[in-house]
Specification:
Blueprint lengths: L1 H9 L5 E2 L2 H10 L2 E3 L13 E4 L3 E5 L11 H8 E6 L4 E3 L4 E11 L4 E7 L1 H5 L2 E7 L7 E2 L4 E10 L4 E3 L4 E9 L6 H11 L8 H12 L6 E10 L2 E9 L6 H18 L3 E9 L15 H15 L13 E7 L2 E10 L7 H14 L4 E8 L1
Parallel strand pairs: 15-16, 18-19
Antiparallel strand pairs: 1-13, 2-7, 3-13, 4-5, 4-7, 6-12, 7-11, 8-10, 8-13, 9-11, 14-15, 17-18
Helix pairs in contact: 6-7, 8-9
Protein backbone atom coordinates (compact mmCIF):
# COMPACT_ATOMS: atom_id res chain seq x y z
CA UNK A 1 0.00 0.00 0.00
CA UNK A 2 3.03 2.36 0.15
CA UNK A 3 2.55 3.52 -3.45
CA UNK A 4 -1.13 4.14 -2.81
CA UNK A 5 -0.40 6.14 0.32
CA UNK A 6 2.17 8.25 -1.52
CA UNK A 7 -0.27 8.95 -4.31
CA UNK A 8 -2.97 9.69 -1.81
CA UNK A 9 -0.85 12.09 0.24
CA UNK A 10 0.36 13.96 -2.83
CA UNK A 11 -3.18 14.93 -3.84
CA UNK A 12 -4.78 15.03 -0.40
CA UNK A 13 -6.28 18.47 -0.94
CA UNK A 14 -8.00 17.49 -4.20
CA UNK A 15 -11.68 16.66 -3.73
CA UNK A 16 -14.46 15.66 -6.07
CA UNK A 17 -14.74 13.09 -8.85
CA UNK A 18 -11.37 11.95 -10.18
CA UNK A 19 -10.42 12.66 -13.82
CA UNK A 20 -8.73 10.30 -16.23
CA UNK A 21 -5.16 10.93 -15.11
CA UNK A 22 -5.99 10.26 -11.45
CA UNK A 23 -7.92 7.12 -12.37
CA UNK A 24 -4.88 5.83 -14.25
CA UNK A 25 -2.67 6.59 -11.24
CA UNK A 26 -5.03 4.65 -8.96
CA UNK A 27 -5.01 1.71 -11.39
CA UNK A 28 -1.22 1.77 -11.47
CA UNK A 29 -1.14 1.94 -7.67
CA UNK A 30 -3.44 -1.08 -7.34
CA UNK A 31 -6.52 0.67 -6.00
CA UNK A 32 -8.43 -0.72 -8.99
CA UNK A 33 -7.45 -4.18 -10.20
CA UNK A 34 -8.95 -6.81 -12.49
CA UNK A 35 -8.55 -10.45 -13.41
CA UNK A 36 -7.91 -9.30 -16.97
CA UNK A 37 -5.79 -6.30 -18.04
CA UNK A 38 -7.43 -2.88 -17.66
CA UNK A 39 -6.88 -1.50 -21.14
CA UNK A 40 -6.76 2.19 -22.01
CA UNK A 41 -10.19 2.16 -23.67
CA UNK A 42 -11.83 1.24 -20.36
CA UNK A 43 -10.81 4.54 -18.76
CA UNK A 44 -13.17 7.35 -19.71
CA UNK A 45 -12.74 11.08 -18.90
CA UNK A 46 -14.14 10.60 -15.38
CA UNK A 47 -15.06 6.93 -15.07
CA UNK A 48 -13.92 3.34 -15.56
CA UNK A 49 -16.01 0.88 -17.52
CA UNK A 50 -16.83 -2.25 -15.51
CA UNK A 51 -16.88 -5.63 -17.26
CA UNK A 52 -19.00 -8.70 -16.64
CA UNK A 53 -17.08 -11.70 -15.33
CA UNK A 54 -17.08 -15.36 -16.35
CA UNK A 55 -20.51 -16.40 -15.02
CA UNK A 56 -23.82 -15.18 -13.68
CA UNK A 57 -26.11 -16.41 -10.92
CA UNK A 58 -29.83 -16.45 -11.65
CA UNK A 59 -31.44 -15.39 -8.36
CA UNK A 60 -35.01 -15.18 -7.11
CA UNK A 61 -34.99 -11.46 -6.36
CA UNK A 62 -32.86 -8.38 -5.92
CA UNK A 63 -31.03 -7.98 -2.61
CA UNK A 64 -28.45 -6.04 -0.63
CA UNK A 65 -25.99 -8.04 1.49
CA UNK A 66 -26.23 -5.70 4.49
CA UNK A 67 -23.44 -4.78 6.94
CA UNK A 68 -22.80 -8.33 8.16
CA UNK A 69 -22.70 -10.42 4.97
CA UNK A 70 -20.93 -10.75 1.66
CA UNK A 71 -22.68 -10.94 -1.69
CA UNK A 72 -21.82 -14.62 -2.01
CA UNK A 73 -23.35 -15.27 1.43
CA UNK A 74 -26.65 -13.93 0.13
CA UNK A 75 -26.36 -15.65 -3.24
CA UNK A 76 -26.34 -19.03 -1.50
CA UNK A 77 -29.80 -18.21 -0.14
CA UNK A 78 -31.26 -16.84 -3.39
CA UNK A 79 -29.42 -18.73 -6.16
CA UNK A 80 -31.49 -20.71 -8.67
CA UNK A 81 -28.74 -21.74 -11.11
CA UNK A 82 -25.44 -20.59 -12.55
CA UNK A 83 -24.81 -19.53 -16.19
CA UNK A 84 -21.46 -19.57 -17.96
CA UNK A 85 -20.72 -16.32 -19.83
CA UNK A 86 -17.33 -17.09 -21.32
CA UNK A 87 -18.78 -18.16 -24.68
CA UNK A 88 -21.79 -15.87 -24.42
CA UNK A 89 -25.24 -16.46 -22.95
CA UNK A 90 -28.75 -15.03 -23.02
CA UNK A 91 -30.12 -13.26 -19.95
CA UNK A 92 -33.90 -13.63 -20.05
CA UNK A 93 -36.30 -10.71 -19.87
CA UNK A 94 -37.81 -10.17 -16.43
CA UNK A 95 -35.21 -12.30 -14.62
CA UNK A 96 -32.66 -11.11 -12.06
CA UNK A 97 -28.98 -12.05 -12.32
CA UNK A 98 -25.95 -11.36 -10.14
CA UNK A 99 -22.69 -11.22 -12.10
CA UNK A 100 -19.24 -10.99 -10.48
CA UNK A 101 -17.29 -8.25 -12.27
CA UNK A 102 -13.74 -8.55 -13.52
CA UNK A 103 -12.76 -5.45 -11.54
CA UNK A 104 -12.20 -5.25 -7.78
CA UNK A 105 -11.18 -2.42 -5.44
CA UNK A 106 -8.63 -1.63 -2.75
CA UNK A 107 -9.52 1.99 -2.03
CA UNK A 108 -7.67 4.47 0.20
CA UNK A 109 -9.52 5.34 3.38
CA UNK A 110 -10.90 8.63 2.08
CA UNK A 111 -11.74 7.52 -1.46
CA UNK A 112 -15.20 6.18 -2.22
CA UNK A 113 -16.92 5.16 -5.45
CA UNK A 114 -20.30 5.13 -7.10
CA UNK A 115 -21.59 3.37 -10.19
CA UNK A 116 -24.23 4.05 -12.80
CA UNK A 117 -25.40 2.33 -15.99
CA UNK A 118 -23.80 3.30 -19.27
CA UNK A 119 -26.08 5.31 -21.54
CA UNK A 120 -26.36 2.44 -24.03
CA UNK A 121 -27.59 0.21 -21.20
CA UNK A 122 -30.44 2.59 -20.47
CA UNK A 123 -31.40 2.82 -24.13
CA UNK A 124 -31.74 -0.98 -24.19
CA UNK A 125 -33.92 -0.84 -21.06
CA UNK A 126 -31.56 -3.03 -19.04
CA UNK A 127 -31.88 -2.48 -15.31
CA UNK A 128 -28.45 -2.79 -13.73
CA UNK A 129 -26.71 -1.66 -10.56
CA UNK A 130 -23.57 -2.48 -8.61
CA UNK A 131 -23.38 -4.09 -5.17
CA UNK A 132 -20.43 -4.76 -2.90
CA UNK A 133 -19.71 -6.95 0.11
CA UNK A 134 -21.40 -5.69 3.29
CA UNK A 135 -22.97 -2.94 1.26
CA UNK A 136 -26.11 -1.19 2.42
CA UNK A 137 -26.83 0.88 -0.69
CA UNK A 138 -26.93 0.08 -4.38
CA UNK A 139 -24.29 1.68 -6.63
CA UNK A 140 -22.44 3.26 -3.67
CA UNK A 141 -19.13 1.81 -2.48
CA UNK A 142 -17.97 3.06 0.89
CA UNK A 143 -14.62 4.80 1.39
CA UNK A 144 -11.69 2.43 1.97
CA UNK A 145 -13.56 -0.58 0.54
CA UNK A 146 -11.48 -3.61 -0.33
CA UNK A 147 -13.12 -6.46 -2.18
CA UNK A 148 -14.95 -7.63 -5.30
CA UNK A 149 -17.75 -5.91 -7.17
CA UNK A 150 -20.94 -7.43 -8.52
CA UNK A 151 -23.53 -6.29 -11.03
CA UNK A 152 -27.23 -6.94 -10.65
CA UNK A 153 -28.68 -7.25 -14.16
CA UNK A 154 -32.35 -7.50 -15.09
CA UNK A 155 -33.46 -7.04 -18.74
CA UNK A 156 -36.83 -5.28 -18.80
CA UNK A 157 -38.05 -5.18 -22.40
CA UNK A 158 -36.34 -8.07 -24.16
CA UNK A 159 -33.76 -10.75 -23.49
CA UNK A 160 -30.13 -9.80 -24.11
CA UNK A 161 -26.98 -11.65 -25.16
CA UNK A 162 -23.88 -10.96 -23.04
CA UNK A 163 -20.45 -12.48 -22.55
CA UNK A 164 -17.41 -12.07 -20.36
CA UNK A 165 -16.16 -8.52 -20.83
CA UNK A 166 -19.54 -6.96 -21.71
CA UNK A 167 -19.76 -3.41 -20.35
CA UNK A 168 -23.05 -2.38 -18.77
CA UNK A 169 -21.94 -0.08 -15.94
CA UNK A 170 -19.25 2.45 -15.15
CA UNK A 171 -17.51 3.39 -11.91
CA UNK A 172 -16.52 6.84 -10.67
CA UNK A 173 -14.06 7.42 -7.84
CA UNK A 174 -14.14 10.46 -5.62
CA UNK A 175 -12.70 12.06 -2.54
CA UNK A 176 -14.51 14.31 -0.11
CA UNK A 177 -18.10 14.88 0.81
CA UNK A 178 -20.33 14.18 -2.15
CA UNK A 179 -23.67 15.25 -0.75
CA UNK A 180 -24.58 18.90 -0.23
CA UNK A 181 -26.76 19.71 2.75
CA UNK A 182 -29.93 21.80 2.33
CA UNK A 183 -28.31 24.53 4.40
CA UNK A 184 -25.30 24.67 2.06
CA UNK A 185 -27.57 24.84 -0.97
CA UNK A 186 -29.51 27.74 0.52
CA UNK A 187 -26.31 29.62 1.31
CA UNK A 188 -24.99 29.07 -2.21
CA UNK A 189 -28.29 30.14 -3.71
CA UNK A 190 -28.22 33.34 -1.67
CA UNK A 191 -24.85 34.18 -3.26
CA UNK A 192 -25.24 33.01 -6.84
CA UNK A 193 -28.98 32.30 -7.34
CA UNK A 194 -28.84 28.68 -8.47
CA UNK A 195 -32.39 28.77 -9.81
CA UNK A 196 -34.55 31.46 -11.36
CA UNK A 197 -36.18 33.81 -8.86
CA UNK A 198 -38.73 36.58 -9.04
CA UNK A 199 -37.66 40.11 -9.84
CA UNK A 200 -38.22 42.64 -7.07
CA UNK A 201 -41.73 44.19 -7.35
CA UNK A 202 -40.40 47.75 -7.49
CA UNK A 203 -38.18 46.86 -10.47
CA UNK A 204 -41.16 45.22 -12.20
CA UNK A 205 -43.13 48.47 -11.78
CA UNK A 206 -40.27 50.50 -13.27
CA UNK A 207 -39.94 48.13 -16.24
CA UNK A 208 -43.66 48.39 -16.94
CA UNK A 209 -43.60 52.20 -16.67
CA UNK A 210 -40.62 52.47 -19.01
CA UNK A 211 -42.36 50.32 -21.63
CA UNK A 212 -45.59 52.32 -21.41
CA UNK A 213 -43.65 55.55 -21.95
CA UNK A 214 -42.64 54.50 -25.48
CA UNK A 215 -44.64 56.39 -28.15
CA UNK A 216 -47.30 54.19 -29.68
CA UNK A 217 -47.74 51.97 -26.60
CA UNK A 218 -51.26 52.07 -25.18
CA UNK A 219 -50.85 49.49 -22.41
CA UNK A 220 -48.57 46.75 -21.09
CA UNK A 221 -50.08 43.53 -19.80
CA UNK A 222 -49.18 39.88 -19.17
CA UNK A 223 -45.66 40.92 -18.19
CA UNK A 224 -43.49 38.11 -16.80
CA UNK A 225 -40.03 38.62 -15.37
CA UNK A 226 -37.44 36.37 -13.79
CA UNK A 227 -33.94 36.71 -12.45
CA UNK A 228 -31.28 34.13 -13.36
CA UNK A 229 -28.05 34.87 -11.55
CA UNK A 230 -27.34 38.55 -12.06
CA UNK A 231 -29.42 38.76 -15.25
CA UNK A 232 -33.06 39.73 -15.66
CA UNK A 233 -35.28 38.28 -18.38
CA UNK A 234 -38.69 39.68 -19.31
CA UNK A 235 -41.48 39.15 -21.76
CA UNK A 236 -44.58 41.29 -22.11
CA UNK A 237 -47.59 42.00 -24.26
CA UNK A 238 -47.75 45.58 -25.57
CA UNK A 239 -51.04 46.95 -26.88
CA UNK A 240 -50.93 49.36 -29.81
CA UNK A 241 -53.57 51.02 -31.98
CA UNK A 242 -55.40 48.22 -33.77
CA UNK A 243 -55.14 49.45 -37.36
CA UNK A 244 -51.47 50.37 -37.61
CA UNK A 245 -49.28 48.53 -40.10
CA UNK A 246 -47.21 45.48 -39.27
CA UNK A 247 -44.00 47.46 -39.81
CA UNK A 248 -45.10 50.21 -37.42
CA UNK A 249 -46.00 47.64 -34.76
CA UNK A 250 -42.62 45.98 -35.23
CA UNK A 251 -40.89 49.34 -34.86
CA UNK A 252 -42.75 50.01 -31.61
CA UNK A 253 -41.57 46.62 -30.28
CA UNK A 254 -37.97 47.43 -31.22
CA UNK A 255 -38.19 50.77 -29.43
CA UNK A 256 -39.57 49.10 -26.28
CA UNK A 257 -36.71 46.58 -26.25
CA UNK A 258 -34.05 49.23 -26.89
CA UNK A 259 -35.35 51.55 -24.18
CA UNK A 260 -35.66 48.80 -21.56
CA UNK A 261 -32.16 47.48 -22.19
CA UNK A 262 -30.80 51.03 -22.01
CA UNK A 263 -32.53 51.87 -18.71
CA UNK A 264 -31.96 48.46 -17.08
CA UNK A 265 -28.40 47.23 -17.76
CA UNK A 266 -29.04 43.84 -16.13
CA UNK A 267 -32.03 43.20 -18.40
CA UNK A 268 -30.31 40.67 -20.67
CA UNK A 269 -33.26 39.71 -22.85
CA UNK A 270 -36.78 41.01 -23.37
CA UNK A 271 -39.46 39.58 -25.65
CA UNK A 272 -42.24 41.94 -26.77
CA UNK A 273 -45.53 40.63 -28.16
CA UNK A 274 -47.53 43.26 -30.07
CA UNK A 275 -51.29 43.09 -29.45
CA UNK A 276 -53.91 45.09 -31.40
CA UNK A 277 -56.44 44.65 -28.58
CA UNK A 278 -56.64 43.69 -24.93
CA UNK A 279 -56.00 39.96 -24.45
CA UNK A 280 -58.03 40.03 -21.23
CA UNK A 281 -61.27 40.62 -23.15
CA UNK A 282 -63.08 37.34 -23.74
CA UNK A 283 -63.58 37.62 -27.50
CA UNK A 284 -64.17 34.79 -29.97
CA UNK A 285 -61.19 33.76 -32.06
CA UNK A 286 -61.75 34.47 -35.74
CA UNK A 287 -60.42 31.65 -37.97
CA UNK A 288 -57.46 32.70 -40.10
CA UNK A 289 -58.53 33.10 -43.71
CA UNK A 290 -56.54 32.27 -46.82
CA UNK A 291 -55.72 35.66 -48.34
CA UNK A 292 -55.61 34.20 -51.83
CA UNK A 293 -59.07 32.64 -51.46
CA UNK A 294 -60.54 35.81 -49.95
CA UNK A 295 -59.11 38.06 -52.67
CA UNK A 296 -60.49 35.69 -55.30
CA UNK A 297 -63.94 35.90 -53.68
CA UNK A 298 -63.72 39.73 -53.61
CA UNK A 299 -62.78 39.78 -57.29
CA UNK A 300 -65.87 37.68 -58.13
CA UNK A 301 -68.12 40.19 -56.31
CA UNK A 302 -66.48 43.15 -58.06
CA UNK A 303 -67.09 41.62 -61.47
CA UNK A 304 -70.69 40.84 -60.56
CA UNK A 305 -71.44 44.30 -59.15
CA UNK A 306 -69.65 46.13 -62.02
CA UNK A 307 -68.39 48.90 -59.78
CA UNK A 308 -67.12 50.98 -61.37
CA UNK A 309 -68.36 50.31 -64.88
CA UNK A 310 -65.93 49.20 -67.54
CA UNK A 311 -63.18 47.83 -65.26
CA UNK A 312 -61.65 44.48 -66.12
CA UNK A 313 -61.19 43.00 -62.62
CA UNK A 314 -59.31 40.02 -64.01
CA UNK A 315 -56.49 42.41 -64.90
CA UNK A 316 -56.92 45.34 -62.46
CA UNK A 317 -55.33 45.21 -59.01
CA UNK A 318 -56.87 46.33 -55.73
CA UNK A 319 -55.61 46.51 -52.14
CA UNK A 320 -57.29 44.56 -49.35
CA UNK A 321 -56.20 45.11 -45.74
CA UNK A 322 -57.54 42.69 -43.12
CA UNK A 323 -58.07 43.33 -39.41
CA UNK A 324 -58.88 40.55 -36.97
CA UNK A 325 -60.46 42.66 -34.22
CA UNK A 326 -63.26 42.41 -31.66
CA UNK A 327 -64.00 38.86 -32.68
CA UNK A 328 -64.69 39.92 -36.27
CA UNK A 329 -62.92 39.96 -39.64
CA UNK A 330 -62.92 43.50 -40.99
CA UNK A 331 -61.48 44.72 -44.26
CA UNK A 332 -60.42 47.91 -45.99
CA UNK A 333 -60.83 47.58 -49.75
CA UNK A 334 -59.06 50.24 -51.81
CA UNK A 335 -60.17 50.37 -55.46
CA UNK A 336 -58.63 52.38 -58.31
CA UNK A 337 -60.72 55.24 -59.66
CA UNK A 338 -60.51 55.25 -63.45
CA UNK A 339 -59.96 58.54 -65.30
CA UNK A 340 -61.43 60.69 -62.53
CA UNK A 341 -64.71 58.78 -62.71
CA UNK A 342 -67.13 59.84 -59.97
CA UNK A 343 -68.08 57.33 -57.32
CA UNK A 344 -71.69 56.72 -56.42
CA UNK A 345 -72.01 56.45 -52.59
CA UNK A 346 -75.02 54.20 -52.96
CA UNK A 347 -73.08 51.90 -55.24
CA UNK A 348 -70.29 51.75 -52.63
CA UNK A 349 -72.75 50.81 -49.90
CA UNK A 350 -74.31 48.16 -52.14
CA UNK A 351 -70.84 46.77 -52.93
CA UNK A 352 -69.97 46.61 -49.22
CA UNK A 353 -73.18 44.70 -48.46
CA UNK A 354 -72.46 42.28 -51.31
CA UNK A 355 -68.93 41.65 -50.02
CA UNK A 356 -70.17 40.91 -46.50
CA UNK A 357 -72.87 38.55 -47.76
CA UNK A 358 -70.65 36.74 -50.28
CA UNK A 359 -67.26 36.51 -48.50
CA UNK A 360 -65.84 35.78 -45.03
CA UNK A 361 -65.70 39.52 -44.24
CA UNK A 362 -67.90 40.68 -41.38
CA UNK A 363 -67.43 44.34 -42.23
CA UNK A 364 -65.72 46.19 -45.09
CA UNK A 365 -64.94 49.82 -45.84
CA UNK A 366 -64.70 50.58 -49.57
CA UNK A 367 -62.25 53.33 -50.44
CA UNK A 368 -61.25 54.81 -53.79
CA UNK A 369 -57.87 56.01 -54.99
CA UNK A 370 -56.98 57.74 -58.22
CA UNK A 371 -55.13 55.33 -60.45
Amino acid sequence: MSEIVALHDEGRSATGIFPTQTLRDLIDAGSVTASQPITADLVQPASIDLRLGDFAWRVQASFLPGPDATVEDKVRAFEMHRIDLMDGAVLEKGCVYIVPLLESLDLPEDVSAFANPKSSTGRLDIFTRVISDRGTRFDLIRAGYTGPLYAEVSPKTFSIAVRTGSRLTQLRLRRGRSEVSPEDLLQLHAKTRLIDTAVDPDIQVKIRQAAKAVPGVIDVHEMRTRRMGADIFADMHVRVRPRISVSEGHRVADEVMDRLKSEFPTLTDVVVHIDPEDDHEDLPLVPLQSREALESAVRVVLKRQRVPEGVDWDARAFRLTLHYLNGRLMGELVLPRVDGQSVDPLACATLAEALVSSTALDQVDVLWMDS
